Amino acid sequence: MIHIVKKEVPKTRDKMIIRVAAILAALLVASIIVIFAGANPLQLYFGILQGCFGSVHRFAATMEKMVPLLVLSLGVMVAFKMQFWNIGAEGQFLMGAVGATLVVRLLPNLPLPIMLLCMMILAFVFGAVWLMIPAFFKARFGTNETLFTLMLNYIALTLVTALQYDFWKDPAASGMPKIANLPDNALLPTVSGFNLSIFFVVIIVLVMYFFMNKSKKGFEIAVLGESENTARYIGLNITKTIMIAALVSGGLCGLVGMFQISGVSGALSVEITGGLGFTAIIVAWLSGLKVPFVVTNAFFFAILLQGASYIQTAFQIPSSVAEMIQAIILFFILGSEFLLRYRFVRDQTESEVA
Question: Do residues 89 and 75 make contact, with C-beta atoms less than 8 angstroms apart?
Answer without folding.
Answer: yes
